[in-house]
Amino acid sequence: MANMTLIEALLMAMDEELARDERVFITGEDVGKRGGVFRATQGLYEKYGATRVIDSPLAELSIVAIGIGAAMAELRPICEIQFADYIHPAFNQIVNEAAKTYYRSDGQWRVPLTIRTPYGGGIGGGLYHSQSVESFFAHVPGLKVVIPSTPHDAKGLLKSAVRDPNPVLFFEPKKGYRAIKGEVPETDYTVPIGPARIAREGRDISVFAYGMMAHYAVIAAEKVAREDGIDAEVVDLRTLLPVDKQAILDSVKKTGKALVVYEDNLTMGYGAEVAAIIADEAFEFLDGPVKRLAGPDVPAMPFSHSMQEFFMVNPDKIAAAIRDLTAY
Fold first, then answer.
1. CB 270 within 8 A of CB 138
2. Which residues pair with residue 114 across a beta bridge?
3. Three-class DSSP category at 320
4. Each residue of 181-200: pLDDT tens digit?
5. CATH of domain 2-184
6. How far apart are CA 193 and CA 146, in angstroms?
7. Class of domain 197-326
8. Which element (helix H / strand E) includes 240?
9. How far does Cα 1 stand from its chain's mean position?
10. Which residues are annotated as catalytic?
11. 300-322 pLDDT per residue, tens
12. Delimiting residues of CATH 3.40.50.920 domain(s) in the chain
């Protein structure tokens, strides 16, 4: 075991997969000699060469299109989109090509493609380097959408994504790249795509989150336990598509209260789906309303640090929401 940051765990996963399978290659903007804008691929170009770690033009559509073609030719591409904000030019390729190829070919063609991209705010990135885009893609059958919140899961889930025969969108909470640390096995292992993780056991209220918000939810749960005696359960969803409905329902049936936390805009965000699952299939177990805590409905996160803090959900805001809901 080694104590490492989230981004170090991602780098280790890619290094191991490149070494394990010669079909694996990485492509994206600045992933080569520079090692990526966040240094997620640092040292891989020198180790594996320019045919395995390939710098691309500034053209997200072509990054994904090349990945789809290579995947259909039985390679295992890892396509990096430098910021999730710039994934939109590739939306048609992802939604109309990668997601639908297996279905429309009656199972004759698979697309074992992994698309990695950092998402979310908190680094002072302003309008075009702070967006949360996961709900656009979690709506699309044929895709898998994964968002880790710990270094252990980041490594294990990324390795599962690379080995998966289907297209996987792998969103990484950029604020947590170096802020989140944890123990990671230095051996080969995978974390299955699909099952949620109980990040903290509890009996009074269930908090559902993913990515940076799952990390913050655990901090908030420990805070209300110390200060208020509230025992909050934190469910780290980890996989948004397919979602682990059973884990959601089991937790709500145990606690009777549900708070869904996400960083995206409140309206039509991914948390609305979690709330709908609970309302539809666990209504009789609820002792209070299903509540959502998310970003405000403004077009984008401002550059101003004070306005960024207003937009961002943080542990104190989550703790306050836990207190309010348990008071019902």
1. yes
2. 78, 168
3. helix
4. 999 999 999 999 999 999 99
5. 3.40.50.970
6. 7
7. alpha beta
8. strand 239-241
9. 23
10. 129
11. 899 999 999 999 999 999 999 99
12. 197-326
